[in-house]
Amino acid sequence: xxxxxxxEARIRGYLFVLQRSLSSFMPKDMANDSLREVESHIRExxxxxxxxxxxxxxxxxxxxxLGPPLKVAQA
Length: 75
Fold this sequence. Notes:
Layout: H1 5-25, H2 28-48, H3 55-66, H4 69-74
Helix pairs in contact: 1-2, 1-3
């Protein structure tokens, strides 16, 4: 699936919150590495998702399966 600007903004928003959460639990370098891993995982899932008219639902499903950024950071 190719993301629209709003889809990209949704991912950036999720990653922003995740980065802030990770930074409160671990050193900066480790937080950045973890953030890159999660972003890579999200983007792989987006690429694998079928193209369709409901990008928002597909993206929310992917992010929902990951969980809220704070919970991901705590894990």
